[in-house]
Amino acid sequence: MRAFTQHKGVVAPMDRSNVDTDMIIPKQFLKSIKRTGFGPNLFDELRYLDEGKPDQDCSQRPKNPDFVLNQPRYENASILLARSNFGCGSSREHAPWALEDFGFRAIIAPSFADIFYNNCFKNGLLPIVLPEETVEKLFQATWAEDGFELAVDLEAKTVTTPSGEAYSFEVDDFQRHCLLNGLDDIGVTLEDADHIRTYEDQRRRTAPWLFRDLSAG
Amino acid sequence: MRETTMAGKTLYDKLWDAHLVKERDDGSCLIYIDRHLLHEVTSPQAFEGLRLADRRPWRLGANLATADHNVPTTNREQGIAGIDDPVSRTQVETLDKNCDEFGIVEFGIQDRRQGIVHVIGPEQGATLPGMTIVCGDSHTSTHGAFGTLAHGIGTSEVEHVLATQCLIQKKMKNMLVRVNGQLGPGVTGKDVMLAIIGKIGTAGGTGYAIEFGGEVIRNLSMEARMTICNMSIEAGARVGMVAVDDTTIDYVRGRPFAPTGELWDQAVESWRNLHSDADAAFDKIVDLQGEDIQPQVTWGTSPEMVTGVGGEVPDPEREQDPIKRGGIERALQYMGLAPNTPISGIELDRVFIGSCTNARIEDLREAAAVVKGRKVSPRLKQAMVVPGSGVVKAQAEQEGLDRIFIDAGLEWREPGCSMCLAMNADKLGQGEHCASTSNRNFEGRQGFGGRTHLVSPAMAAAAAISGHFTDVRELMQ
């Protein structure tokens, strides 16, 4: 996984609450057996005027000129500013894959859905929770100024505006550690393999019915 | 971490404590996973990850796989070759290959036990009280109806569970949703859950594990409890659960993978403890009164946009909060509905009875009872019934429900997720309104430009007969 330490980039405003993962990446694209290549279909139904199909060349498709990511000023955006409950619905990790593949490195919102929030950390994408009033201020600033940028520092846990205003955010220590170092958390867990075996041995004695081997029929 | 107090434990606390392998210094916890369910859409990249890192599954026998999201609901006699869409076919083939290569038991698409992953787990007794259960699917909360800790995970975590039989977790907060009193006739588990979501909102349960309790829940069948837990995620909670009682134990007894003999007795004794202690402390408690709940219909593009069948589509003018007002306006525009339209005035194009929320035998019985001896409205382009599994289908056919549906003009299909998310050929056309027993009314969910209204199986059946929403209680008289 790509590490995340600091990032500075253009902010794109996604001004609606309850953005669901069906909206982030519609179901027809989940048929892929790969982890990459979802970027062109990010927000497909909002971004294009026609119905998208898997494995299609999206460069020729009619774009919705009103959609935020189609506006030239947000073309190179790498920080998504969003409203509450971003990423609700389906657990599809294709949603963070699509956001990351498009070029986003961080998402700022007043709240995220739990599964989506967790999935972001596995993909080098940093979800940042800031208070509603702060997010509102950032929306205003983003709309007001072409090319508005924010600087995110995961080590310091801050988001800083061009004028130097810094906002602190909270993040789980373990998730931060993995993201800062680009760690494979399976590797980290396997360092505790002995603990897992000890747990299993003890549990097998007290609750043996949990260990019926389904593959044995 | 919360302060340790002398208060009793919640059901969630008990399940958490029983599965805690290790708590690290940074507060992150290693939680052991008893059962892992897999399907074709969220697993291929996880298997690929195992191969790339040269890792093997930690405990093969804990896994159960089936193909459900992509499978056609017709022409199943041809097996995988009958899947017309080559991209879907590849994904189903890939699941077969991965399960073969790693040795994971799979119910393939011609196995009579195949079905929606959240229907087959309980049906086969692969879901047992007291387990931790995960699957790369947000509706894994369904299994919480058995007093399990069950939730959806992403593909990276699918790989993590395959490789380690554990997940790295932080403990959630405890919420109790109590539904007191009694339900009126024609009011089902689906209506209860939609009413709960309407009350607490689609993010109301974010960060919480919800336990559903109260007299109404205690009196519900296992299948109705599954419907309620299934849609916990639509209230924002990854986890929903119900305490174990006789109803739970009676349902599990005799299932193919359930324990037997002495092991069964030992298990039941342990399961009897799977309830919150009387003095357990919850971070939040929500109360609803069963008598107040009417048959529910969603009018918008989020499950919280819901009202009783006697109600009306809201008027955004009356909403003070500008973000909410914008949300209502956008939803009404997408749904093609004018403010203040009576719910019964919404005309329908299609009806879908199915999904992991409502495709079990009781759901089909409930719908069949309404359509029996009646005909589907000529207004509809299609009304379809998609059983949740091959076992449900066989049971329904044995009871003659298939004949009732077919005689009334509904289509009787093969099991799968089908039009709930429209990954296969079953989908809505642009602008079409659908009465659906599924779980999400998001934009485009059931097809590009499609308009979904979430209802119970009984309400969907009533809508199929009328061609518009009708209070099912009027048809029951």
From TrEMBL, chain A:
**What's in the keyword line of the UniProt record?**
Amino-acid biosynthesis, Branched-chain amino acid biosynthesis, Leucine biosynthesis, Lyase
Which InterPro entries does the UniProt entry name for this protein?
Answer: 3-IsopropMal_deHydase_ssu, Aconitase/3IPM_dehydase_swvl, AconitaseA/IPMdHydase_ssu_swvl, IPMI_Swivel, LeuD
The EC number(s) given in the record are: 4.2.1.33
Question: Could you tell me which residue ranges the Aconitase A/isopropylmalate dehydratase small subunit swivel domain spans?
Answer: 1-132
Asked if the Swiss-Prot or TrEMBL record annotates the protein with the keyword Lyase, the reply is: yes
Q: Which GO terms describe its molecular function?
A: 3-isopropylmalate dehydratase activity
Membrane as a keyword of this entry, yes or no, is no
Q: What class of enzyme is it?
A: lyase
Which GO annotations describe the biological process of this protein?
Answer: L-leucine biosynthetic process
As its record notes, the protein acts as a catalyst of: (2R,3S)-3-isopropylmalate = (2S)-2-isopropylmalate
One Gene Ontology cellular component annotation?
3-isopropylmalate dehydratase complex
- Please name the pathway: Amino-acid biosynthesis; L-leucine biosynthesis; L-leucine from 3-methyl-2-oxobutanoate: step 2/4
Q: What family does the Swiss-Prot or TrEMBL record give for this protein?
A: Belongs to the LeuD family. LeuD type 1 subfamily.
Q: How does it assemble?
A: Heterodimer of LeuC and LeuD.
Q: What does this protein do?
A: Catalyzes the isomerization between 2-isopropylmalate and 3-isopropylmalate, via the formation of 2-isopropylmaleate.
Protein name as catalogued: 3-isopropylmalate dehydratase small subunit
In the UniProt record, the gene name given for this protein reads leuD
Automatic annotation (TrEMBL), chain B:
What does the note accompanying the cofactor annotation read? Binds 1 [4Fe-4S] cluster per subunit.
Name the domain of life this protein comes from: Bacteria
Which GO terms are recorded in the biological process aspect for this UniProt protein?
A: L-leucine biosynthetic process
**Swiss-Prot/TrEMBL cofactor(s):** [4Fe-4S] cluster
Listed A to Z, the keywords are: 4Fe-4S, Amino-acid biosynthesis, Branched-chain amino acid biosynthesis, Iron, Iron-sulfur, Leucine biosynthesis, Lyase, Metal-binding
One Pfam family it belongs to: Aconitase
UniProt cross-references to InterPro entries, sorted A to Z: 3-IsopropMal_deHydase_lsu, Acnase/IPM_dHydase_lsu_aba_1/3, Acoase/IPM_deHydtase_lsu_aba, Aconitase_4Fe-4S_BS, Aconitase_4Fe-4S_dom, IPM_dehydratase_rel_enz, IPMI_cat
Pathway(s) annotated for this protein in UniProt: Amino-acid biosynthesis; L-leucine biosynthesis; L-leucine from 3-methyl-2-oxobutanoate: step 2/4
**Which reaction equations make up its catalytic activity?**
(2R,3S)-3-isopropylmalate = (2S)-2-isopropylmalate
Q: Which terms does the record give in the GO molecular function aspect?
A: 3-isopropylmalate dehydratase activity; 4 iron, 4 sulfur cluster binding; metal ion binding
Q: Which residues form the Aconitase/3-isopropylmalate dehydratase large subunit alpha/beta/alpha domain?
A: 13-467
PROSITE patterns given for it?
ACONITASE_1, ACONITASE_2
Binding locations of [4Fe-4S] cluster: C356, C417, C420
Tell me which EC number(s) this protein carries.
Answer: 4.2.1.33
**SUPFAM superfamilies, sorted:** Aconitase iron-sulfur domain
Q: Spell out the subunit comment.
A: Heterodimer of LeuC and LeuD.
HAMAP family membership = LeuC_type1
Similarity comment: family membership? Belongs to the aconitase/IPM isomerase family. LeuC type 1 subfamily.
Q: What does this protein do?
A: Catalyzes the isomerization between 2-isopropylmalate and 3-isopropylmalate, via the formation of 2-isopropylmaleate.
Its recorded name reads 3-isopropylmalate dehydratase large subunit
